[in-house]
Amino acid sequence: MPYKKYPLIRPAGTRLESIHSRVPRIKGSGFAQSVYPGCSVAEFFSALPKTGAAEDLGILAARMRAARKQDLAVILAMDDAAAESALQPLVIDLMERGWISALAVSWSVAVTDFEIALTGNIGQKVTKDGTESVAEETGLLLNAGLKEGLQRKIGCGEAIGLYMTQAGFPNSSLSLLYTAYKLNIPVTVHPGGGRNPTRLHPHHDCAALATLGEKDFLFLASILGRLEKGGIWIQAGHSALVIGLLLEAIHFCAVNSMPIPQLDAGLLLDSVPYKEEQNFMRECRKAGGWCQHIPGDLSLLVPLLAALLLNPASDEHARERA
């Protein structure tokens, strides 16, 4: 028998409305279209649905295109996942084509990039017995580059790029830092976080790395302080370290009476954003910028973004208005 305290509710009083009066969340024109054999890249992107990651990636590409027309900076931030996704030739091509204005990377990215210039490969970071692999050449040569950077009073990214230019490594054409130095694209390298691949090396100079890293933090703040008219931040892979430093650099601009950057941002992440990344997204939107988490694997997202930049879909103008 029914409970007296909780009488049965009947739907007779439910307010009804016509289905045709509903505001469409996704219009029919936004549905995915068929992809035919032999279609072009632009036709492929035009066939994608106007929702989810497909839409957000298109909006990010449109905003990057608008930023380039207005001569606004596009900053690419990277951590381990991006550095070890074998995307270097693609990112280098975007740098050479003028799509990327600056790089902000962790120290572990710089180490991986340095080793790619030396060997042309991305090596295993763990030995066969499961211990941390410490490469002799990496620690020795990187330390030499850091010491020269101290003498020249330059930042970490510039010091490594300069050293690789002088050393003439056999695979430098695959190096982001080498290419950025040759193209005069700023690179800020940020030590810290839980992983330092060279810490166990006997020649590793923590003091030199910290000093040069502090210069790069100030350099990042200087770059951000010139983006009061707008700019793009692309986060390739999770990085609580780099995002935390970005927020700190924005705060540094504020307390030093520098212009607060007005950023649009795309976070290319394979899972839910970290707490620091969520904080950045809130701050970005509060300042009036477009900011979106675009989920997916970097080995697909970054090539798709590059293809969109070079082969805009036929509906790009509609996405720009979005």
Could you please describe the fold and organization of this structure?
The chain contains 13 helices and six strands. With 322 residues, the protein is α/β, with parallel strands linked by helices. The protein has a single domain (41-122, 133-321), classed as Rossmann fold, CATH 3.40.50.10690. It has a six-stranded parallel beta sheet, sandwiched between helices. α2 (52-69) packs across α12, α6 crosses α9 (206-224) and α9 (206-224) crosses α10 (240-255). It starts with 40 loop residues before the first helix and ends with a helix.
Q: Key features?
A:
globular; six-stranded parallel sheet; alpha/beta; Rossmann fold; disordered C terminus; 13 helices; about 325 residues
Quick overview:
This protein is α/β, with parallel strands linked by helices and 322 residues long.
What form results from the Cα inertia axes? Answer: globular
> What is the H level of CATH, i.e. the homologous superfamily?
putative lor/sdh protein like domains
Helix content range = 40-55%
Radius of gyration, in Å, reads 24 Å
Count of alpha and pi helical runs: 13
Provide the CATH top-level class: Alpha Beta
- Give the beta-strand count: 6
Q: Detail the poorly predicted runs.
A: 317-322
* Strand order in the sheet with the most strands: 3-2-1-4-5-6
What is the CATH topology descriptor? Rossmann fold
Q: State which percent range the strand residues make up.
A: 5-15%
User: CA-to-CA gap between the ends?
Assistant: 56 Å
Q: State the domain count.
A: 1
Order of helices and strands: HHEHHEHHHHEHEHEHEHH
Q: Give the structural class.
A: alpha/beta
